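Quick start: what a row looks like.
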Amino acid sequence: MTLIESEYHLTTESFSPPQPGNLTASPASPRSELTTDLPTFDELGIPAAVVTVLAGRNITVPTRVQIEAIPMAHRGGDIVVQAKTGTGKTLAFGLPLVAVLAAPTGTRPRALVVTPTRELCLQVASDIALVGEALRLRSVAVYGGQDFGPQIDALTKGVDIVIGTPGRLLDLVTRKELDLAGIDRLILDEADEMLDMGFLPDVQRLLKYTVNRSSTMLFSATMPAPIWSLARGFLDQPTFTTVYDPNSDATTVSGVTQFVYQAHPLDKPQMLAKLLQAEGRGPTIVFCRTKMTAQRLSDDMVERGFRAVSLHGDLPQPAREKALAAFRDGRAEILIATDVAARGIDIDGITHVVNYQTPEDPATYLHRIGRTARAGRKGIAVTFVEWDNLLRWKLISSELGLGMDIPVETYSSSESYHSDLGIPVGVSDRLVVEARTPQRIVNGKSGQTTSSQRSGRPSVNDRSRRSSHENTVEPVRGSSPAPTPKTDRPVRAEGERRRRRTRGGV
């Protein structure tokens, strides 16, 4: 235990004594054990109307992080919770938040949730709106890339909970369209990502605007040093807790089966195309490190016959939302994205996550593969490592204790690659035309992609077919041949060379 950790463990006196069905915690250790008799949402103090809504989504048993965080949130005060990605952190703070607010009062917001990315903002807003409607609570999502008008209109009508990204929140505060003086509960979701993205000064300003808050909850999958500095400077005697997976002491979720291969950059598209034809593969997310690679790879997979969409920072916000919506409702089965999708993508049934390019650091790797094997399910994570990224991967593997420091050199034709991932023998690196027509999701609609659609101009074959169709007149059976269309051009004698006008009339 480090000095900083021990400093915060001294503040855990607020835990209640061990009781059947309740949380058991020791002030001397961050590890919290749960009894075998797990409490229900009703026993955790969640209103019956909200419990009914959760049951409608087949959520009947709280996760470990929810069992631990909800009682702490009910008691109030400042809380720092560390839990693996995919363990249900959104409902861990969303459920007690709506339970404490209970019913709408006035027009000023009473709770603020800060998220690092727009995608995570929309995901959190969707979950909070679902459980908040049962108590008639009003919520709004504010984020960049959209017009201020609808967001300002919603704030003017009155809201109870605001979910937003730091930049847009500060813009609205500066315009005097958002009043944070009435904020009683503040939640910082994925705080480590906000720090990595350079939002620390913005978060500090938001904390200064919400001086009347009675409780601040900070949730994160990792706890780097800046998180501790933030907690020490702005939180009042925070209670720190770490939720462990009882089935695994590893940093990653136990339900994820991980494969790592040393791949050649020119062979990676073929490896990915064959992986996408593996047995049992469902919705898949492919992560790239750069926006250009994500877009090019998406175009390549569409050319090979797969229903793929791209998601990255160069796309306008409406296009990002439409691509994500197409992936959610099944019109696209492959999402090729940068790390903007590493947080906040919570879609049921994601079976595979592919690191097409090696992640920057261990935290990014954890959040990427955390998109699968969520809520106790199983999933597969595949990582391609190029030879110039071997050192970076070794550091990631060593820090996370994965035991895969030196990946085996593998190609799309390797037998081990096929057997590991359940790829049928003899499968091609593109789909058969009869089996799947190439699809591209354009403006939220799916349709067949032709070469003229991809390039924005008619292809050679398209032009030749159109020309032959326009210039050919089929005679009707039993009638005289169609007359030759009249033209002002003189008729050239047979064999006469056709003159062409050159530039300048010369």
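That is the whole record. The two ends are 87 Å apart (CA to CA). Residues 130 and 193 are 25 Å apart (CA to CA).
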